Amino acid sequence: MKPAPFKYVVPDTVDEVLALQAEHEDEAKVLAGGQSLVALMNFRMAQPSVLIDLNGLTSLSGIENGGPVIEIKALTRQLEVERSATMTALPIVAEALRHVAHVAIRARGTFGGNIAHADPASELPALMLALEAEMVATGPDGERVIPAADFFKGYFTTSLEPTEILTSVRIPTKQPGAWAFMELARRHGDFALAGVATLLDVEDGRCRSARIALFGVADTPVRATEAEAFLVGKDPVGEVLEEAARITAEALNPSSDIHAPGAYRKKLSSVLVKRAVTAALNRGDMG
Amino acid sequence: MSVQETSTDAQDDLVVQVRVNGESRRGFAEPRTLLSDFLRHELGLTGTHVGCEHGVCGACTVLIDGEPVRSCLMFAVQAGGKEIETVEGLAKGAEMHPIQQAFQENHALQCAFCTPGFLMTVSALLDTNPDPSEDEIREYLSGNVCRCTGYVGIVAAVQSAAKKLRDQGGTADER
Question: For residue B174, is it within any domain?
Fold first, then answer.
Protein backbone atom coordinates (compact mmCIF):
# COMPACT_ATOMS: atom_id res chain seq x y z
CA MET A 1 0.00 0.00 0.00
CA LYS A 2 2.07 2.89 -1.27
CA PRO A 3 1.15 6.19 -2.94
CA ALA A 4 1.35 6.49 -6.71
CA PRO A 5 4.24 8.62 -8.01
CA PHE A 6 3.80 12.38 -8.00
CA LYS A 7 5.73 15.56 -8.55
CA TYR A 8 6.51 17.09 -5.16
CA VAL A 9 6.73 20.85 -4.72
CA VAL A 10 7.44 22.86 -1.57
CA PRO A 11 6.52 26.50 -2.18
CA ASP A 12 7.87 29.29 0.02
CA THR A 13 4.99 31.70 -0.47
CA VAL A 14 1.21 31.63 -0.84
CA ASP A 15 1.59 33.27 -4.27
CA GLU A 16 3.66 30.31 -5.42
CA VAL A 17 0.96 27.93 -4.15
CA LEU A 18 -1.69 29.83 -6.09
CA ALA A 19 0.41 29.85 -9.26
CA LEU A 20 0.94 26.09 -8.99
CA GLN A 21 -2.78 25.50 -8.44
CA ALA A 22 -3.62 27.65 -11.47
CA GLU A 23 -1.05 25.78 -13.56
CA HIS A 24 -1.97 22.23 -12.60
CA GLU A 25 -5.69 22.63 -11.73
CA ASP A 26 -7.29 19.25 -10.91
CA GLU A 27 -3.99 17.41 -11.19
CA ALA A 28 -2.68 19.07 -8.04
CA LYS A 29 -3.50 18.58 -4.38
CA VAL A 30 -2.31 20.71 -1.49
CA LEU A 31 -0.79 18.83 1.43
CA ALA A 32 -1.26 20.32 4.90
CA GLY A 33 -1.07 17.89 7.86
CA GLY A 34 -1.77 14.97 5.54
CA GLN A 35 -3.67 12.96 8.15
CA SER A 36 -6.52 12.36 5.70
CA LEU A 37 -4.79 12.96 2.35
CA VAL A 38 -1.78 10.67 2.87
CA ALA A 39 -4.06 7.85 4.05
CA LEU A 40 -6.13 8.31 0.87
CA MET A 41 -2.93 8.35 -1.19
CA ASN A 42 -1.70 5.17 0.51
CA PHE A 43 -4.92 3.48 -0.63
CA ARG A 44 -4.48 5.18 -4.03
CA MET A 45 -7.96 6.61 -3.63
CA ALA A 46 -6.20 9.92 -4.25
CA GLN A 47 -3.54 10.03 -6.97
CA PRO A 48 -2.56 13.65 -7.48
CA SER A 49 0.14 14.03 -10.11
CA VAL A 50 1.40 17.15 -8.34
CA LEU A 51 1.58 17.44 -4.56
CA ILE A 52 1.95 20.98 -3.25
CA ASP A 53 3.34 20.73 0.28
CA LEU A 54 2.20 23.75 2.33
CA ASN A 55 4.42 22.89 5.28
CA GLY A 56 7.12 25.32 4.18
CA LEU A 57 4.76 28.26 4.67
CA THR A 58 5.55 29.43 8.19
CA SER A 59 3.37 32.51 7.56
CA LEU A 60 0.33 30.20 7.62
CA SER A 61 0.92 29.01 11.18
CA GLY A 62 0.01 30.68 14.46
CA ILE A 63 -2.81 32.10 16.54
CA GLU A 64 -3.48 35.82 16.82
CA ASN A 65 -5.77 37.39 19.38
CA GLY A 66 -7.23 40.41 17.63
CA GLY A 67 -9.66 41.40 20.43
CA PRO A 68 -13.10 40.83 18.87
CA VAL A 69 -11.76 37.87 16.87
CA ILE A 70 -9.16 35.19 17.35
CA GLU A 71 -7.51 34.34 14.06
CA ILE A 72 -6.17 30.82 13.69
CA LYS A 73 -3.88 30.42 10.68
CA ALA A 74 -4.82 27.42 8.60
CA LEU A 75 -1.60 25.43 9.05
CA THR A 76 -1.59 25.64 12.87
CA ARG A 77 -1.44 22.09 14.23
CA GLN A 78 -4.55 20.94 16.05
CA LEU A 79 -2.51 20.05 19.12
CA GLU A 80 -1.05 23.57 19.21
CA VAL A 81 -4.55 25.07 19.16
CA GLU A 82 -5.69 22.65 21.87
CA ARG A 83 -2.79 23.68 24.15
CA SER A 84 -2.81 27.40 23.31
CA ALA A 85 -3.20 29.83 26.21
CA THR A 86 -4.99 32.22 23.81
CA MET A 87 -7.68 29.64 23.17
CA THR A 88 -8.67 29.44 26.85
CA ALA A 89 -10.94 32.38 25.93
CA LEU A 90 -12.97 29.89 23.86
CA PRO A 91 -12.82 26.62 25.84
CA ILE A 92 -15.28 24.86 23.52
CA VAL A 93 -12.51 24.76 20.89
CA ALA A 94 -10.10 22.68 22.99
CA GLU A 95 -13.01 20.50 24.12
CA ALA A 96 -13.96 19.80 20.49
CA LEU A 97 -10.33 19.15 19.51
CA ARG A 98 -10.00 16.46 22.17
CA HIS A 99 -12.59 14.51 20.14
CA VAL A 100 -10.54 14.77 16.92
CA ALA A 101 -8.82 11.39 16.44
CA HIS A 102 -5.78 10.89 18.71
CA VAL A 103 -2.79 12.85 19.99
CA ALA A 104 -0.46 11.57 17.26
CA ILE A 105 -2.94 12.65 14.58
CA ARG A 106 -3.53 16.07 16.16
CA ALA A 107 0.22 16.65 16.48
CA ARG A 108 0.41 16.69 12.70
CA GLY A 109 -3.14 17.48 11.56
CA THR A 110 -3.89 21.14 10.95
CA PHE A 111 -6.83 23.25 12.07
CA GLY A 112 -7.51 24.60 8.58
CA GLY A 113 -6.94 21.28 6.87
CA ASN A 114 -9.64 19.59 8.92
CA ILE A 115 -12.08 22.37 7.98
CA ALA A 116 -11.17 22.50 4.28
CA HIS A 117 -11.42 18.69 4.03
CA ALA A 118 -15.09 19.15 5.08
CA ASP A 119 -15.79 15.65 6.28
CA PRO A 120 -19.45 15.91 7.36
CA ALA A 121 -18.74 13.71 10.41
CA SER A 122 -15.81 15.86 11.52
CA GLU A 123 -15.89 18.03 14.63
CA LEU A 124 -14.36 21.33 13.51
CA PRO A 125 -16.72 22.16 10.62
CA ALA A 126 -19.72 21.91 12.99
CA LEU A 127 -17.84 23.89 15.61
CA MET A 128 -17.20 26.66 13.06
CA LEU A 129 -20.94 26.78 12.31
CA ALA A 130 -21.79 26.98 16.01
CA LEU A 131 -19.21 29.71 16.67
CA GLU A 132 -20.32 31.62 13.52
CA ALA A 133 -16.70 31.78 12.43
CA GLU A 134 -15.42 33.12 9.13
CA MET A 135 -13.13 31.30 6.72
CA VAL A 136 -10.50 33.38 4.97
CA ALA A 137 -9.74 32.11 1.46
CA THR A 138 -6.81 33.44 -0.53
CA GLY A 139 -6.91 33.31 -4.30
CA PRO A 140 -5.52 35.10 -7.34
CA ASP A 141 -7.68 38.16 -6.54
CA GLY A 142 -6.63 38.33 -2.90
CA GLU A 143 -8.57 37.46 0.23
CA ARG A 144 -12.22 36.49 0.42
CA VAL A 145 -14.07 36.08 3.71
CA ILE A 146 -16.69 33.32 3.79
CA PRO A 147 -19.08 32.85 6.72
CA ALA A 148 -19.09 29.27 8.01
CA ALA A 149 -22.78 29.05 7.05
CA ASP A 150 -21.81 29.49 3.37
CA PHE A 151 -18.64 27.42 3.45
CA PHE A 152 -19.75 23.78 3.67
CA LYS A 153 -21.50 22.67 0.49
CA GLY A 154 -21.66 18.88 0.60
CA TYR A 155 -19.63 15.74 1.24
CA PHE A 156 -16.00 16.86 1.31
CA THR A 157 -17.05 19.94 -0.64
CA THR A 158 -16.63 23.61 0.28
CA SER A 159 -17.18 26.92 -1.44
CA LEU A 160 -13.41 27.29 -1.92
CA GLU A 161 -12.62 27.82 -5.60
CA PRO A 162 -10.08 25.43 -7.16
CA THR A 163 -7.76 28.43 -7.45
CA GLU A 164 -8.03 29.31 -3.73
CA ILE A 165 -6.70 27.91 -0.47
CA LEU A 166 -8.00 28.36 3.06
CA THR A 167 -5.46 30.57 4.83
CA SER A 168 -7.08 31.29 8.18
CA VAL A 169 -10.17 31.06 10.34
CA ARG A 170 -11.57 33.98 12.34
CA ILE A 171 -13.61 33.17 15.43
CA PRO A 172 -15.53 35.93 17.22
CA THR A 173 -14.53 35.99 20.90
CA LYS A 174 -17.92 37.23 22.03
CA GLN A 175 -19.95 34.05 22.29
CA PRO A 176 -23.01 32.94 24.25
CA GLY A 177 -22.05 32.05 27.82
CA ALA A 178 -23.19 28.43 28.16
CA TRP A 179 -21.70 25.78 25.92
CA ALA A 180 -21.24 22.07 25.43
CA PHE A 181 -19.65 19.79 22.87
CA MET A 182 -20.61 16.11 22.69
CA GLU A 183 -20.48 13.22 20.31
CA LEU A 184 -21.11 9.53 20.20
CA ALA A 185 -18.50 7.35 18.49
CA ARG A 186 -18.11 3.58 18.55
CA ARG A 187 -14.53 3.96 19.77
CA HIS A 188 -12.90 7.04 21.22
CA GLY A 189 -11.22 9.00 18.45
CA ASP A 190 -13.31 7.53 15.65
CA PHE A 191 -15.45 9.74 13.50
CA ALA A 192 -18.69 10.32 15.37
CA LEU A 193 -21.96 8.60 14.50
CA ALA A 194 -23.44 11.95 15.49
CA GLY A 195 -22.30 14.95 17.48
CA VAL A 196 -23.40 18.38 18.62
CA ALA A 197 -21.89 21.74 19.51
CA THR A 198 -24.22 24.08 21.38
CA LEU A 199 -23.89 27.63 22.69
CA LEU A 200 -26.69 29.23 24.70
CA ASP A 201 -27.26 32.70 26.03
CA VAL A 202 -29.46 32.23 29.08
CA GLU A 203 -30.62 34.98 31.42
CA ASP A 204 -33.03 34.59 34.34
CA GLY A 205 -33.92 31.09 33.20
CA ARG A 206 -34.84 32.21 29.68
CA CYS A 207 -32.94 31.45 26.50
CA ARG A 208 -32.09 34.71 24.74
CA SER A 209 -30.41 32.87 21.90
CA ALA A 210 -29.48 29.30 21.11
CA ARG A 211 -27.09 27.76 18.65
CA ILE A 212 -27.13 24.05 17.95
CA ALA A 213 -24.82 22.63 15.29
CA LEU A 214 -24.82 18.93 14.45
CA PHE A 215 -22.39 16.72 12.58
CA GLY A 216 -22.54 13.20 11.19
CA VAL A 217 -26.23 13.56 10.35
CA ALA A 218 -26.19 15.09 6.85
CA ASP A 219 -23.83 15.72 3.95
CA THR A 220 -22.62 18.89 5.71
CA PRO A 221 -22.65 20.04 9.33
CA VAL A 222 -26.05 21.60 10.00
CA ARG A 223 -27.62 24.13 12.36
CA ALA A 224 -30.88 23.03 14.00
CA THR A 225 -32.49 26.35 13.13
CA GLU A 226 -36.08 25.39 13.98
CA ALA A 227 -35.09 24.06 17.39
CA GLU A 228 -32.92 27.13 18.02
CA ALA A 229 -35.85 29.45 17.25
CA PHE A 230 -38.18 27.33 19.41
CA LEU A 231 -35.90 27.70 22.44
CA VAL A 232 -35.74 31.51 22.36
CA GLY A 233 -37.68 33.02 25.27
CA LYS A 234 -38.11 29.66 26.98
CA ASP A 235 -36.49 27.85 29.87
CA PRO A 236 -34.61 25.04 28.05
CA VAL A 237 -35.42 22.24 30.48
CA GLY A 238 -38.02 19.48 30.87
CA GLU A 239 -40.76 19.39 28.24
CA VAL A 240 -39.37 22.43 26.41
CA LEU A 241 -36.07 20.66 25.93
CA GLU A 242 -37.85 17.44 24.93
CA GLU A 243 -39.71 19.39 22.26
CA ALA A 244 -36.54 21.12 21.02
CA ALA A 245 -34.85 17.72 20.73
CA ARG A 246 -37.86 16.36 18.83
CA ILE A 247 -37.84 19.34 16.45
CA THR A 248 -34.11 18.86 15.88
CA ALA A 249 -34.50 15.23 14.87
CA GLU A 250 -37.61 15.88 12.77
CA ALA A 251 -35.67 18.26 10.52
CA LEU A 252 -32.98 15.65 9.82
CA ASN A 253 -32.88 12.82 7.35
CA PRO A 254 -29.50 11.15 7.94
CA SER A 255 -28.37 8.49 5.52
CA SER A 256 -27.49 4.95 6.55
CA ASP A 257 -24.02 3.53 6.21
CA ILE A 258 -21.88 0.69 7.49
CA HIS A 259 -21.54 2.43 10.88
CA ALA A 260 -25.19 3.12 11.72
CA PRO A 261 -28.68 3.29 10.19
CA GLY A 262 -30.05 6.75 9.45
CA ALA A 263 -32.91 6.27 11.90
CA TYR A 264 -30.41 5.62 14.68
CA ARG A 265 -28.49 8.79 13.87
CA LYS A 266 -31.77 10.73 13.87
CA LYS A 267 -32.67 9.41 17.31
CA LEU A 268 -29.13 10.03 18.51
CA SER A 269 -29.29 13.68 17.44
CA SER A 270 -32.26 14.30 19.72
CA VAL A 271 -30.58 12.51 22.64
CA LEU A 272 -27.38 14.49 22.13
CA VAL A 273 -29.24 17.81 21.97
CA LYS A 274 -30.91 17.07 25.31
CA ARG A 275 -27.64 16.04 26.93
CA ALA A 276 -25.66 18.93 25.49
CA VAL A 277 -28.15 21.65 26.40
CA THR A 278 -28.39 20.23 29.92
CA ALA A 279 -24.60 20.11 30.22
CA ALA A 280 -24.29 23.66 28.90
CA LEU A 281 -26.76 24.96 31.50
CA ASN A 282 -24.97 23.10 34.28
CA ARG A 283 -21.56 24.37 33.28
CA GLY A 284 -22.58 28.04 33.36
CA ASP A 285 -20.50 30.81 31.91
CA MET A 286 -17.62 30.13 29.58
CA GLY A 287 -15.83 33.10 31.12
CA MET B 1 10.67 26.73 -3.90
CA SER B 2 11.89 23.21 -4.47
CA VAL B 3 10.43 20.90 -7.09
CA GLN B 4 11.03 17.16 -7.14
CA GLU B 5 9.67 14.50 -9.42
CA THR B 6 9.16 10.95 -8.36
CA SER B 7 11.02 8.68 -10.67
CA THR B 8 11.43 4.96 -10.95
CA ASP B 9 15.11 5.64 -11.54
CA ALA B 10 16.80 5.34 -8.17
CA GLN B 11 19.45 7.84 -9.23
CA ASP B 12 16.81 10.55 -9.08
CA ASP B 13 15.90 9.79 -5.48
CA LEU B 14 16.31 12.65 -3.06
CA VAL B 15 18.83 12.72 -0.27
CA VAL B 16 17.06 13.01 3.06
CA GLN B 17 19.09 14.06 6.07
CA VAL B 18 17.56 13.57 9.51
CA ARG B 19 18.66 13.14 13.10
CA VAL B 20 17.49 9.79 14.44
CA ASN B 21 17.97 8.98 18.12
CA GLY B 22 20.59 11.71 18.37
CA GLU B 23 22.60 10.57 15.35
CA SER B 24 22.80 12.30 12.01
CA ARG B 25 21.59 9.91 9.31
CA ARG B 26 21.05 10.25 5.60
CA GLY B 27 19.40 8.12 2.99
CA PHE B 28 17.61 8.22 -0.32
CA ALA B 29 13.88 8.56 -0.80
CA GLU B 30 11.44 9.11 -3.59
CA PRO B 31 8.98 11.90 -2.73
CA ARG B 32 6.31 9.23 -2.26
CA THR B 33 8.41 7.18 0.18
CA LEU B 34 6.64 7.11 3.53
CA LEU B 35 8.72 7.98 6.58
CA SER B 36 7.93 4.53 8.02
CA ASP B 37 9.44 2.81 4.96
CA PHE B 38 12.42 5.17 4.94
CA LEU B 39 13.24 4.33 8.55
CA ARG B 40 12.90 0.60 7.97
CA HIS B 41 14.29 0.06 4.48
CA GLU B 42 16.74 2.90 4.03
CA LEU B 43 18.05 3.38 7.55
CA GLY B 44 17.58 -0.24 8.65
CA LEU B 45 15.61 0.78 11.74
CA THR B 46 13.08 -2.04 11.65
CA GLY B 47 11.91 -1.47 15.22
CA THR B 48 9.24 0.87 13.85
CA HIS B 49 6.45 -1.46 12.78
CA VAL B 50 4.06 -0.96 9.89
CA GLY B 51 0.53 -2.15 10.55
CA CYS B 52 -2.43 -0.55 8.80
CA GLU B 53 -0.59 2.08 6.73
CA HIS B 54 -3.46 4.52 7.02
CA GLY B 55 -3.01 6.04 10.43
CA VAL B 56 -5.40 3.92 12.45
CA CYS B 57 -3.34 1.32 14.32
CA GLY B 58 -0.51 3.41 15.82
CA ALA B 59 2.19 0.72 15.35
CA CYS B 60 4.39 3.10 13.32
CA THR B 61 4.30 5.94 15.88
CA VAL B 62 7.62 7.77 16.28
CA LEU B 63 8.47 11.07 17.90
CA ILE B 64 9.28 14.03 15.68
CA ASP B 65 10.65 17.04 17.50
CA GLY B 66 9.25 15.47 20.67
CA GLU B 67 5.67 14.93 19.46
CA PRO B 68 4.20 11.52 18.62
CA VAL B 69 3.30 11.20 14.92
CA ARG B 70 2.28 8.44 12.55
CA SER B 71 5.29 7.73 10.35
CA CYS B 72 2.98 6.14 7.73
CA LEU B 73 1.14 9.44 7.23
CA MET B 74 4.23 11.48 6.44
CA PHE B 75 6.64 11.42 3.55
CA ALA B 76 10.31 10.92 4.36
CA VAL B 77 11.18 14.13 2.50
CA GLN B 78 9.02 16.05 4.98
CA ALA B 79 11.17 14.84 7.87
CA GLY B 80 14.34 16.45 6.49
CA GLY B 81 16.21 18.31 9.24
CA LYS B 82 13.89 17.02 11.96
CA GLU B 83 14.76 15.22 15.19
CA ILE B 84 13.26 11.73 15.10
CA GLU B 85 13.08 9.29 18.00
CA THR B 86 12.34 5.64 17.35
CA VAL B 87 12.10 2.63 19.63
CA GLU B 88 15.77 1.86 18.96
CA GLY B 89 16.65 4.98 20.94
CA LEU B 90 15.04 3.84 24.19
CA ALA B 91 17.42 1.20 25.53
CA LYS B 92 20.93 2.19 26.54
CA GLY B 93 22.99 -0.73 25.28
CA ALA B 94 21.80 -3.85 27.09
CA GLU B 95 19.91 -1.80 29.68
CA MET B 96 16.24 -1.40 28.89
CA HIS B 97 14.49 1.92 29.31
CA PRO B 98 12.26 2.04 32.44
CA ILE B 99 9.20 2.05 30.14
CA GLN B 100 10.44 -1.12 28.45
CA GLN B 101 11.19 -2.72 31.84
CA ALA B 102 7.69 -1.86 33.03
CA PHE B 103 6.14 -3.38 29.88
CA GLN B 104 8.10 -6.60 30.49
CA GLU B 105 7.24 -6.77 34.20
CA ASN B 106 3.54 -6.12 33.65
CA HIS B 107 3.02 -8.44 30.69
CA ALA B 108 2.05 -5.45 28.58
CA LEU B 109 2.81 -7.35 25.38
CA GLN B 110 2.18 -10.70 23.86
CA CYS B 111 2.92 -10.74 20.13
CA ALA B 112 4.66 -7.34 20.49
CA PHE B 113 3.76 -6.09 17.03
CA CYS B 114 2.12 -2.98 18.49
CA THR B 115 4.73 -2.49 21.22
CA PRO B 116 7.14 -0.05 19.51
CA GLY B 117 4.24 2.33 18.82
CA PHE B 118 3.01 1.99 22.40
CA LEU B 119 6.48 2.59 23.85
CA MET B 120 6.99 5.78 21.83
CA THR B 121 3.51 7.07 22.65
CA VAL B 122 4.04 6.36 26.36
CA SER B 123 7.40 8.10 26.18
CA ALA B 124 5.65 11.24 24.85
CA LEU B 125 2.91 10.96 27.48
CA LEU B 126 5.31 10.69 30.42
CA ASP B 127 7.40 13.58 29.11
CA THR B 128 4.40 15.90 29.35
CA ASN B 129 2.55 14.24 32.24
CA PRO B 130 4.77 12.39 34.75
CA ASP B 131 1.84 11.16 36.87
CA PRO B 132 -1.12 10.43 34.59
CA SER B 133 -4.40 9.01 35.91
CA GLU B 134 -5.77 5.80 34.43
CA ASP B 135 -8.26 7.84 32.40
CA GLU B 136 -5.49 10.05 31.06
CA ILE B 137 -3.42 7.00 30.12
CA ARG B 138 -6.33 5.35 28.31
CA GLU B 139 -7.18 8.61 26.53
CA TYR B 140 -3.57 9.21 25.42
CA LEU B 141 -3.11 5.62 24.22
CA SER B 142 -6.49 5.49 22.46
CA GLY B 143 -4.76 5.82 19.09
CA ASN B 144 -2.69 2.66 19.58
CA VAL B 145 -4.34 -0.66 18.91
CA CYS B 146 -3.29 -3.88 20.69
CA ARG B 147 -5.12 -7.07 19.73
CA CYS B 148 -3.51 -9.32 22.34
CA THR B 149 -3.45 -7.86 25.81
CA GLY B 150 -6.81 -6.19 26.38
CA TYR B 151 -4.82 -3.14 27.54
CA VAL B 152 -4.98 -3.95 31.27
CA GLY B 153 -1.29 -4.89 31.39
CA ILE B 154 -0.40 -1.89 29.27
CA VAL B 155 -2.14 0.57 31.59
CA ALA B 156 -0.45 -1.08 34.60
CA ALA B 157 2.90 -0.83 32.83
CA VAL B 158 2.45 2.88 32.16
CA GLN B 159 1.60 3.50 35.82
CA SER B 160 4.65 1.48 36.86
CA ALA B 161 6.90 3.25 34.34
CA ALA B 162 5.64 6.63 35.50
CA LYS B 163 6.58 5.72 39.07
CA LYS B 164 10.01 4.41 38.07
CA LEU B 165 10.75 7.64 36.21
CA ARG B 166 9.46 9.83 39.03
CA ASP B 167 11.60 7.92 41.52
CA GLN B 168 14.62 8.49 39.27
CA GLY B 169 13.74 12.17 39.11
CA GLY B 170 14.17 12.32 35.34
CA THR B 171 11.80 12.57 32.40
CA ALA B 172 11.22 9.74 29.95
CA ASP B 173 13.83 11.44 27.74
CA GLU B 174 16.50 12.45 30.23
CA ARG B 175 16.99 9.66 32.64
Answer: no
**CB neighbours of B162 closer than 8 A, spacing ≥ 6?**
B126, B130, B131, B132
Say what the pLDDT of residue A191 is: 87
Contact of A81 with chain B, judged by CB distance below 8 Å, is answered with no
- Would you call B36 an interface residue with chain A, using a CB distance cutoff of 8 Å? no
Mean pLDDT taken over chain A? 96
Name the residue among A7, A11, A43 with its Cβ closest to that of B54: A43
Task: Kindly identify which residue of chain B lies nearest to residue A15, measuring between CA atoms.
Answer: B1
**Counting Cβ atoms within 10 Å, is residue B152 exposed (0-12), middle (13-18) or buried (19+)?**
exposed
Span A130-181, pLDDT tens digits: 999 999 999 999 999 999 999 999 999 999 999 999 999 999 999 999 999 9
Report the residue of A41, A54, A103 to disrupt the B interface, i.e. the one with the largest count of B CBs within 10 Å: A103
Which is nearest to A171 in space by CA: A97, A274, A98, A233? A97
CATH of range A7-54; options 3.40.190.10, 3.90.226.10, 3.30.43.10, 2.40.10.340? 3.30.43.10
Averaged confidence pLDDT in chain B = 93
Residues 210-249 of A with CB under 8 A from B: none
User: When comparing pLDDT for A12 and A188, which is higher?
Assistant: A12
CATH number at residue B25: 3.10.20.30
Q: For the domain A65-172, what is the CATH code?
A: 3.30.465.10
Q: Which pLDDT score, from 0 to 100, does residue A1 have? A: 67
